[in-house]
User: Fold this.
Amino acid sequence: MLSWKTCRPAGRTADRGGATICLLAVGLVFVLVGLFGAALGAARVARQQAHAAADFGALAGAGRALDGDEAACARAGELAGANGGRLVACRLDGLDVLVTVEVAVTPVPWLRRTATATSRAGPVRG
Assistant:
């Protein structure tokens, strides 16, 4: 009857855990790539959210353009805030309203960024 020791090739010693270290390294690479992908996805979602908040804010402000700069920008700020953004800049250019909104994003706990978008709305010119 053969035992495990007799089937082992000559000159081989006991395992030293090299495969475990390699497996842990590969697992760490997968975790880091996944974390990077999640951070990238969060940044893209924040950018889209900033665009939507700026668009809605500009449309709301354009609806109040005849009431003046203060009323138009106040309404734009309300709608930008309701859509998860923060109004950074707002100005009236004739009957057009130009709105800049930013959305804060924290893709990973130690990294905080902002996504900014600008939008213009006003009457149709033909």
User: Anything to note?
Assistant: Strands lie at 86-93, 96-108, 111-121. The CA atoms of residues 8 and 14 lie 10 Å apart. The longest helix spans residues 18-63.
